[in-house]
Amino acid sequence: MSRKPASGAVVEGIDFDRWAVVLCKPDAVERDLVDAVLKRIEGAGVCVRARTTLIAEPWQAHVAYRDMLADPGRFPADLPARIDDAYSGQRVTVALAHGGPDIHARLRRLIGHTDPTKAVVGTIRGDLGNDSIVAATRAGRLVRNLVHTSDDPASARRDFGTWYGPGRTLKISDFDRCSVILCKPDAVERGLVDAVLERIAATGATIANRREVTVQSWQAHVHYWDLLVDRDWFPDRDIPACLDDAYAGRSVVVALAYGEPGVHARLRDLLGHFDPTQAAPGTVRGDLGDDSLAAALAEKRLVRNLAHTSDDLAAARRDFGTWYGAGRRDLLIPELPAQSTAAEA
């Protein structure tokens, strides 16, 4: 017997703590204010992506206003009809906004009060709104207030499934926006995985698909292929044995980091020098590392330096196949359309 997924579990692989859905409502589209609204959001330091214009279906508006529809004691009896009148068959524009863990609260403050006449100057509704709840009530319709953003991570998950569709994920251009993070055995053993991932997330990267892996020898060999190919550079050490000693049968944690082009270089800079004693303060290895190349050489082993991130696009593709499996491209997210066919009709 199949089990229904938990409420709101319409998509996986996205860190909805850092992603919000922006809905530019029919009045924003009709008044040609979509660009102005999204520019205001970007001006607040939020990255806006996957903009899509579509024709709203009745069910989408019903889900979007589900809390109001399920609370008839507070709202007019004809609320379903008002929602249908406002949305069904009308153009809306949706987009994804990426920021820090406080993105939902920040965007809600930016858009302002539900009633544009009560929204303060500097908010989107306060500056661009031209309607009021009084006028809407008198006319028996919904207030026209331009834009909605997700209230919290659970709402963002539901909004994403409503407007983009379940099973869809964030657009990435193959691996140029995706890096694989490997938290090495020493990070796991020292209980530093969360600290490492929090440092990476603080750069604005979206962390997804975290998983713990018990390392097989082949994975360590593929990951460190360059050390094996150039093992004659290390005459004092048996590199295959060192890799097996350090990794085989031990636990690591891997995750995907999504960001803008250049994410690979930014994350490599964040990790710091491979020798923790040479890594600068403020880097992961400089602040959290407790080993040194000198100690590793003396003990004829690999240096313990907590984490790895993909060097570049090609490395990210190889790292993904190594740690997730080449057959798991479903984790990488199919591309979202720039604009829906329905909106072009």
UniProtKB/TrEMBL annotation:
EC number(s) stated in the UniProt entry for this protein: 2.7.4.6
InterPro entries: NDK-like_dom, NDK-like_dom_sf
Domain Nucleoside diphosphate kinase-like: 21-171, 176-333
Species this chain originates from: Streptomyces guryensis
Family of this protein: Belongs to the NDK family.
Molecular function terms from GO: nucleoside diphosphate kinase activity
Cofactor annotation: Mg(2+)
Designated name of the protein: nucleoside-diphosphate kinase
Keyword list, A-Z: Kinase, Nucleotide metabolism, Transferase
PANTHER family: NUCLEOSIDE DIPHOSPHATE KINASE (PTHR11349)
Entry's Gene Ontology BP terms: nucleotide metabolic process
